[in-house]
Amino acid sequence: MWKYVLKRIGLAFLTTFIILSLTFILVKLLPFEKKAGDDKVQTAYYDKQYSLGYVIRTTHEVDDHGDLLYRTPEDKGRYFCYYQVPVMEQYGKWLSNVVTKWDWGYSKTYQPNVAASTIIMSRIGYSIRLNIISVIFSVPIGILLGIWAALKKNTMTDHTISTMVMVFISIPSFVLISFVLRIFCYSLDWLPSTWPADTAPFWARAKGYIIPVFCLSFGSICGYCRFTRAELCEVMESDYLLLARTKGLTRRQAIVRHALKNAMVPIFPSILAEFIGILGGSMILESLYGIPGIGKLFVLSLNYKDYDILFVDMAIFTTISLLAGVVLDLSYGFIDPRIRMGAKK
Amino acid sequence: MADRQIEFRSDDFQLVQNDKIITDVKLDTKPTTFFKDAFRRFCKNKSSVVGAIILAILVFMAIVVPFLIPHDIENVHSDEAFLAPKVFESGTGFWDGTRAYKQVPYNRQEEVPALSDKYTPAAIRKSLISLTVDEEPTLQDAANSYAFGGTVMFQTDAKVEGKDAYLISKTVDFNSKDGYAIEILFGNEDGVQESHLAEYRVFLRGATDASPLAADEPEPEEPEEPAEGEEANPLFDEEEEQQPDQIETIELSSDQIVMIRDFSTDYSPISFDISKALADAGLTSMKAQIVFEIRAVNDELRYILIDKVTLTAGSKAKNKDMLAAVSFEDGNEMVLVSNKADSAYWACSGRKGVHNASIYYCDFVLDTYMLIYGDTDLQSYAASVLNKWIENGWCSYDYTVGPESFVKLKDDCPIEHVESQTLNSRTKKLLEITGSGFKYKKLGYSSMPLHILGTDATGKDLFKRAFASLRTSLILGICTSAFCFAFGLIWGSISGYFGGNVDLFMERFCEILSGVPWIVIMTLCILHLGNNFFTFFLALCMTGWMGTAARTRTQFYRFKGREYVLASRTLGSSDMRLIFKHILPNSMGTIITSSVLMIPRVIFSEATLAYLNLGLQGQQSFGVMMSTNQPRLDKYPYLVIFPAIIIALMMISFNLFGNGLRDAFNPSLKGSE
Fold this sequence. Notes:
CATH topology of the largest domain in chain A: MetI-like fold
Distance between the termini of chain A: 15 Å
Largest interface: A-B, 39 and 36 residues
CATH superfamily of the domain at 462-669 in chain B: MetI-like
Structural class of chain B: alpha+beta
Number of strands of chain B: 22
CATH topology of the domain at 462-669 in chain B: MetI-like fold
Shape of chain A: elongated
Shape of chain B: elongated
Order of helices and strands of chain A: HHEEEHHHHHHHHHH
Structural class of chain A: mainly alpha
Number of helices of chain A: 12
Number of helices of chain B: 20
Oligomer: heterodimer
Helix content of chain B: 25-40%
CATH class of the largest domain in chain A: Mainly Alpha
Largest sheet of chain A: 3 strands, antiparallel
Strand order of the largest sheet of chain B: 4-16-6-14-9-12
Strand order of the largest sheet of chain A: 1-3-2
Largest sheet of chain B: 6 strands, antiparallel
Number of strands of chain A: 3
Distance between the termini of chain B: 58 Å
């Protein structure tokens, strides 16, 4: 077992490493966006890049390093020129920077010369808070709806719930957000149409959470509901449940003690995986509702062509999705001892 | 034991099939193929059939609509922006191209609602539903240009701490003979905080450009005053540009001011005889400004409410106009006028606002089609133009009879009726006519255009745009899905069939590629290759085929050990034959289902990217259309809601259809009813 866990985690690390390396190289291969701004900020930026090893600094213009990135204004006849280092060399530097100093680079245009990790840390809180609240809402509601539908299988209740779930799972999130904004913000004017500022009073900020939480949890409510219903329906038809009834257990006892427990086996890992997912933000929701989370940061860094930030943001999303996959797989084994993960035949 | 032995002889037996020819018996049931059976089971699933029908309609419309609707969606038509959706005749009240406005300020002068959009007053006046009068809240600095009444609220500037504020009128000539008088009425304090009422004074300040009449006065005492006065001329452009310091530094000598009311908090009306005061001071005439001064208290906000200032004079006074201009009654008007630099009669070093002004609000329904395509104003057309129309047979006209003789013969005729005609005074021949027609003719339409879902900010027809975009999305989806289907099939077959190290390697490759979130791959592709159709296709293919491959691989693992495969192998079939003839057809159903369900995913991905500003360029794109319209959700909700409904309908019917297909193809359900 432990061998398998270690192997899985090791493999996940390897995959993350390969993906991040590829992404880094691809991002660095993008045409270099020359930085605009005043000389002081520019010089500071390129000096930082120089100390990180991504550019070289010369005291005169040279030809063998590609395009000139920036030339400092002359000071007593002295100036510096900055040139880009070959991408693979940058990659090596990046590896050593991340491993030894945990330095992920600096913002170029969005918040000039602020460390990427600082920007991410200042924003990730919003995303996490929002996602935690939505998970707290969506998991119980979704599972309860699913149980309800499964217990009333093939009745009106079941059909209604299943149809609603099917309809709402098909609606893209941006469509849902548009409708919700239209109805609750513009027509009825009950809720704010954008994310309230941090300085707003507590009540206003609490109201600002309603729409994003609703939109975020809607999809997962439908997902959990469908998943739970399918699992529970399958369990309800199994032989051991029939045995449980024949040996004298009431329906309620049979469902609570046998059916639910077994139905939860595949559901629980997905909840765990979802909790990992709270680290990532929803890009569309955050940019449409103006939430300053890391999903919005992705869009912002794209607009600003601030590729270093973009890369770090991508790295987070990638790591989260891989981590969630590993947790999902591993938790199966912990929850249900019958499932021997990675066992040979 | 021997007695119990039974002996069989050969004639005890009879051949059952002696002399009979054994042939295949015809089956009682109808033969069916896998696909026929799947289709039969699909048809039994009601909701899936409904989904398939809706889907078919949408696909059909996506193909047909862009050809049927004549509107141009490539170019910008800013004239035709924001037409409301219209299907029925206007006036039916539902989907008729009208837009209801509520609580719009009403312009009393022109008797129309105060809209920033262009409109024909006549069309709007007709559609007015109700008019309500409402009290505006206290406004600072900028008064509402459609409000009226109210009192002037003159206050210290909170931004400038502890500085007295002045409200200064233009210079007025007063003299002691003509019975000049001033009446000032202060506003009552209802609705304002009494504690903020200021201590104030009112006085006349002698202006420095002394009149010739004032020659006998000992008037300009300080020589530096004139220059000061001219600079402090109360014709300030903007309050920001004022220099309150200059006003403040004026040292007022008793000769230059005539006190009307010294510092006090007494708000009772003032009635003051200026001429008498001048005579008492021994002056025959005085050029003076009326000055209100508020004493500032630390940085607190202090104000006074001035309801009315009336300057009167006897009948002989010459400058009645000036007196009337300086007097004010309507607080809103006073603030409005004084904010205009060129006609300011009052300048202010603090801030002024309007308190308790009234404003009319109106509700009305606007026919957007009449607004944009409706009647034009009267326009002149030369006789030569008219002759051309007559030649073309569009209309007939006889200038000897006059405008009544105009008859429109064809719809091509640009005018609807003739208002008047002008004849050459000598030859008595027609020079020109004035008439009015419909604007849509000017815009190049032969009849009133109809936009079923209205138009967006660029004047493009939303209905055509939506379906043209749907077509792009569908083409993208089908292309991607077809490629992924083919590639995934081959990849999955090889991986699943051969297994072992080949499988291991191919699986690791997939694992790494599928570990990258699709958004990262899409973003990188678009950044490197630009956001055109091909990039989208490529990027979506890169992420899409792995699902099909994984599914195919599983199916191969399931079937490759079966007896029929073994039998075929023993007969010497090649790998290719085993893969394509024996294993693949059995797993086809599942794979097809997954490919169909891939199409909505592709549409969704494309739309999502548009919301991240990475939308498809150069083609009509659903996501780009919706994301550019998103900020207008507030004012023109139909721009977002209708495309949203179409795409939601599309997704729902695709899922219904796909689910039905999955159930129909599921081999474990085969035969079960």
